[in-house]
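Example 3.2
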Amino acid sequence: MSVSDDQLSTGSNCIEVEYFFEEKTHLMDALVQNKCEYELLALIREIATRLKLRIIIETTPLAEQGFRRRFKVALKKATPTASAAVTIITAALAAVITAPLSVSAREATQQLVQQLFDGLLEPDAADKEKLQLQTEQLKQRLITGCASLDDSKVIKKRRSNFFELLNRYPRINRVQFIASDENSTLIAYEKNVRRQEFETFIVTTNATEPETIDNADIEIISPVLKKSNNKWTGLYKGSACTFTMQSKEFNKLVQSGKVQFKNGTVINCQLTIHKKINNEGVERVTGMAITEVNRYFENDIPVETAAARKPKKPVEPEITQLALFM
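Structure, written as tokens:
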């Protein structure tokens, strides 16, 4: 039996963005507006991906005065719970967009999803039990999808780009996000972000924590045999890479001719990989460095370096607050 759209709906299917200006005007720089919307749509798409949802975003006309933009959200596949899903999804999208860096988007969105599901009307349908089961499955899927929101560098960077554009545009003094129906009569979520708060959304550095691999095997393609700032070339996990050799001990061995290289020579080392996120939030490798060589090979026989023979410092256990009282 088919289920009518209004059985589980609270009415929200649009995200409305309104820009407020310092002076009495409704004019906005077209390039700034287009760039903001580009970042906003990319952000919405990433959030939907994290929530494991396939959505369609359309723009809808506005008759009201003021500088507003409205984006209609719809699921690509119709289901009995689609109406309720869209209501909660639009509110969740707006909540993630307006979550500053200091706030967990996961916790805020999970709490909002739970509140909205608790507020849904009891379905009045012949297949009530089936519909309730589908609704519960939808809730669990959305709450589970929220778990990865804080891990997404794309969300953080796209959101940062949006607010950085507004921060550089002095005419805007606040921006408002509303999750509502097309007539703005039913509101599931609403939040204002004032100019003084814009910086709390902006990522201040694109560098990420370096990744350290303790026992990396690198096949040497082109070593640097003389003292210089040139980079070595090698193969790591089947891919060509360039890196700096920062092990003073191994550099001395190479420069003195005590280490010979031939086709297929492999070294085992401690490798540090430096990364940055680009303007789209995608992590890119910016540099690789070998900080210590554990062993190299002579006539296929592994030779351990002096650095590798040194006893390693034991990892000190973390002192917890509970331990202080024991």
